C-alpha cells in the first residue's frame, strides 16, 4: 500500500510540474502581463492570418525582476481573430490549431530605452537576433544573483595574496 501511495504521489508531482509552463492559467501573475504583451503584438502583427494567436508555452527559463526576459511560443487557434486590440489576449475557449501551422516566437524584455516586444515566425527568429540583442539580460540569467568569480575588484592592478589571482 505504501508503494502504491508513493508511486501515486510521484505521478501527481510529475503531472503538475509538466502542466506548469504549458498552461496559461498555471502561470504566475508576475509573468502574465509580459506574456499578454507578446500575444497582443503577435495578433496585431499577423492579423492577415484571420485566426486568433494564443499562448502555448514559455521557452527556456524566464528571468523576472527589475530586469526581465521572456521567450514565449504562441500558436494559431481555431477562433477568429478579435476585431480590436482588447480582444488580443489569451483565450481559454480557443483550441490550438493542428501541428502543421508555424510557431510564433516572441521575446519580451527590457532594454536601455524601454521595453522590447519582438515576434517572428519561429523559422525566421534567427534573423531577429540583432534586434533581440538589445535585451539587458539573456535567458537563464538570474537578476540579483552573484558569485565570487563574477565580482570585480574595481582596480586594474594585478591582485596578489590569493590563490590563482596572479
TrEMBL record:
<keyword id="KW-0732">Signal</keyword>
<protein>
    <submittedName>
        <fullName>Cystatin-like protein</fullName>
    </submittedName>
</protein>
<feature type="signal peptide">
    <location>
        <begin position="1"/>
        <end position="20"/>
    </location>
</feature>
